[in-house]
Amino acid sequence: MTNLKSFVGRWCLLLGLAACGGGGGASSDPTPAAPSPLPAGWERLADLPVGVAKFGVAALGGRLYVVGGYDTRDTVWVYDIASDRWSAGPPLARATDNVAAVALAGRMWALGGEAGAVLQSLDPAAGGWTLAPNPPTVRFASAAGVVDGRLHAAGGWNANNSASASLARHDRFDPVAAAWSVAAPLATARNAAGGAVVDGRFHVVGGRAPGIRRGDQSPLASVEVYTPAADRWDAGPPLAAARASLAVAVLGARVYAFGGEDAAGAVVDTVERLDSVTGSWRTLPAMPYRSHGLGAVAVGDAIYVMGGFGGASDATGTESRALYRYTPAE
What we know:
With 330 residues, the chain is mainly beta. Helix content is 4%, strand content 37%. It has 1 helix and 26 strands. It is globular, with a radius of gyration of 18 Å.
């Protein structure tokens, strides 16, 4: 059952009342104006109804689903690409943030986060979220991807403030069998990493370790690549600079990495691209705004980048409403 804070917060968000601490008027909106001119390839689209950060996002049926968000929301926002319009979707069964989202088998899936060891599923035609079989362990700020029809979840945080630690664990969920199984763990435990799948291989990009708080962690530049047939992780090309709480997406067999927090704790607007042919990262022109805890998802020939904190750490009140479409020139 949704707790009182989440219930009140959801209605405040839907009504757009500034007094309720979300959305609000222009005077309280932390979303930066789009720079003029915009960087090449970037287009500003309709803003989210409210600012969001540390949410999950995935695309299904020509729509983007933004699920949950800091601080423990049950809200779901649905963006229709064709009409450039946002609407409220069915609320999550369990409010959450630091959640991973994927589209698989015609459904939306929301994994873990503040909700704990929980997997939630939405059939858009049925119109409501249900609880699927629980993952074997808590999945907070895990990297996720879909490989061979299975949801893979790697890394994350142990959700233990007294003994804070990242996870190396790697689990996979088969929606047909409705069952979880254990796969090879990461070489380096990490949380707040990006997850991407290229040519059937699961990439886990950057992140932080060993903890999650500002005083017990450092961002990572390392990348690990999982080959399902061998059940093995190999080292991939590292990012040019360590980043955590970044967003990644795949377009044309290339992994793109957006934003995040760097080793100095600064929020960045960095964009890098991994070319699977050359096997190296290339730094591209910066994105239009600085953000961490943001989301990115590819649809068609473009990547949609949205939300996130403009301030360092869990900077409540700096959640962005921005949505951009990025179409790389090459």
